[in-house]
Amino acid sequence: MSVVVQFSIFPLHATGSLAPYVARAVEVVRASGLPFQLGPMGTVVEGEWGEVMAVINACYRELEPDFDRIYVSFTADSRRGRQDGMASKVASVLGQTRDKS
């Protein structure tokens, strides 16, 4: 069953910008080969449940050795038979708006 997951992960109590730590997680996502999209407040990943959860786990494991506390949150939408869910969900909403950007 296809799942689209938006997740955020970052260490707590890190000083300065969190961008270097988020970038480490994004590199893990990129290496997975799953479709993903980086957003301003999280990263969206699409695949089968086990694949996506394995990527989130790998992101956690990437940061775990360096930090005592890590924040992780995610939302998921699972749908049987869906193809290209990230793009189709956005296109569906835009198709209902007056400005079809």
TrEMBL record:
Gene Ontology CC: one annotated term: cytosol
Pfam families listed in its UniProt record: Thiamine_BP
Residue ranges of domain Thiamine-binding protein in the record: 5-93
Matching InterPro entries: MTH1187/YkoF-like, Thiamine_BP, UPF0045_domain
Family under the similarity heading: Belongs to the UPF0045 family.
Protein name (record): Thiamine-binding protein domain-containing protein
Organism: Pseudodesulfovibrio aespoeensis (strain ATCC 700646 / DSM 10631 / Aspo-2) (Desulfovibrio aespoeensis)
